[in-house]
Design goal:
This protein is 72% helix and 0% strand. By secondary structure, it is mainly α. α1 (5-17) crosses α2 (25-35), α3 (41-64) runs antiparallel to α4 (71-93) and α3 (41-64) packs across α6.
Length: 145
């Protein structure tokens, strides 16, 4: 999928903000490009918010472990945000070319350990997008790419 100039610039900015830690840069670019269209901007902002929460919650769950205090509540929140992230991804991908939809479905929306690992990497990258929205003064669920 061809990325526009604005999306390419945004990816460079996000790569800089992350200190070069983006793991799914190309796929993030596709989502940003798809999300730049008016009917997906709100979903992209919501996706950034939920994705960052999901990645942080997973890290906390790994640290405290299944028997740790608050794990059950955090696990329930994780599951809720996982469903929301999946729904938002499907919404943004709705108008994408078939090959892009198939690629994202196989790579990020499959119920496999690899699918979850890839999704968490993508969520961490989307977290940088959310940070950029906040830094730009557009609030935690900003709508501009």
């Amino acid at each position: 999928m061809q990325l526009g100039t604005d999306t390419t610039r945004l990816l460079v900015e996000l790569d800089h903000l992350s200190g070069g830690r983006l793991k799914r840069r190309e796929d993030l670019g596709i989502l940003l490009e798809l999300g730049a269209h008016a009917d997906h901007r709100s979903a992209l902002g919501d996706l950034g918010f939920s994705a960052k929460f999901l990645a942080r919650a997973y890290g906390m769950m790994q640290r405290i472990g299944p028997g740790g205090e608050g794990y059950d509540r955090l696990s329930a929140e994780f599951s809720s945000h996982l469903e929301k992230v999946s729904m938002l991804l499907r919404s943004i991908l709705r108008d994408a070319p078939d090959d892009v939809r198939s690629y994202f479905s196989a790579r990020y929306l499959s119920l496999t350990p690899e699918g979850l690992g890839g999704l968490l990497d993508l969520c961490r990258d989307l977290g940088w997008y959310k940070n950029r929205l906040i830094d730009a003064g557009r609030g935690p669920r900003g709508t501009a790419p």
